[in-house]
Design brief:
Elements lengths: L7 H9 L7 H23 L9 H36 L8 H36 L5 H26 L5 H32 L4
C-alpha cells in the first residue's frame, strides 16, 4: 500500500515501529503537506466574502499554487520511501565487496535528493503562507500561523535528512554543494515562518 493511501493511524503506527519506512523524510513531507493545506483552508474560507472581494484574485492564485505544492509534498512522502529502499540494501552489502562504494554513492545521492526537494517545497509553502496571513480571512488567521510553523518544522527536519546522507558521500565536493543549499534555505525560511507566527500572534492578542 502506498504511503498516502494508509490511514493516519496506520501511518503513525508504522512510523513508530522499527520498519525502515516511513521515516523522517516522509514524515517531513507529510507535515509540510499539512502546513500548506492549512493555507488552502484559509483561502477557501476567504473566497466569496464581500469583505475580501478586493483580494479574491490573489487568493485564487494562492490556492492554485498551494494545491500544486500540497500534491507534490504528498507525492514526496512516497518518493522518500522509494529512495530509501536502495540505501537500506546498500548498508547490508559487506564492506569488503568492491561494488559497495559505487552502490552506496548512488543510493546516497537518491536518498538526499528527495528531502532536498521537500525543503524547496516547504520554502515555497512558507512564502505562500505569508500571503495567506496578510490577505486571508481574519477568522482563519491562526491557521495561517499554524501552517507556517508546520512548514518550518518540516523544512528543518528535511534538512537533517539531507545531511545525514551527505556526510557519508565519497564525493565531498557534491556533498558540500548540497549542504550549502540546505544552509541557504535554513538561513532564510525558518525566520520568515517565525515572523508569520509572531505577526499572527500579535494580531490575535498574544504577547
Amino acid at each position: 500500500m502506498e504511503m498516502m493511501q494508509k490511514s493516519c493511524g496506520l501511518f503513525v503506527d508504522e512510523l513508530a515501529s522499527k520498519a525502515a519506512v516511513p521515516g523522517g523524510g516522509g514524515a517531513s513531507a507529510l507535515v509540510g503537506a499539512v502546513g500548506i493545506a492549512l493555507g488552502n483552508m484559509v483561502g477557501c474560507l476567504t473566497l466569496g466574502k464581500a469583505k475580501y472581494a478586493a483580494v479574491e484574485p490573489d487568493i485564487l492564485a494562492l490556492n492554485e499554487k498551494a494545491s500544486a505544492l500540497r500534491a507534490r509534498l504528498k507525492s514526496l512522502v512516497e518518493a522518500d520511501a522509494v529512495a530509501f529502499a536502495p540505501l537500506a540494501k546498500a548498508y547490508s552489502i559487506p564492506k569488503d565487496d568492491p561494488a559497495r562504494a559505487a552502490v552506496m554513492e548512488s543510493a546516497l545521492d537518491a536518498a538526499a535528493a528527495v528531502p532536498l526537494e521537500i525543503m524547496a517545497c516547504c520554502c515555497q509553502a512558507i512564502a505562500l503562507l505569508e500571503e495567506y496571513a496578510a490577505k486571508g480571512s481574519v477568522l482563519a488567521l491562526s491557521d495561517a500561523g499554524c501552517g507556517a510553523l508546520f512548514c518550518a518544522a518540516a523544512l528543518q527536519a528535511a534538512g537533517l535528512n539531507v545531511t545525514v546522507n551527505t556526510r557519508l558521500m565519497a564525493d565531498r565536493a557534491k556533498a558540500a554543494r548540497l549542504d550549502a543549499q540546505v544552509e541557504e534555505m535554513l538561513r532564510e525560511y525558518p525566520a520568515r515562518a517565525n515572523a508569520v507566527y509572531e505577526r499572527v500572534r500579535a494580531r490575535l492578542g498574544g504577547k
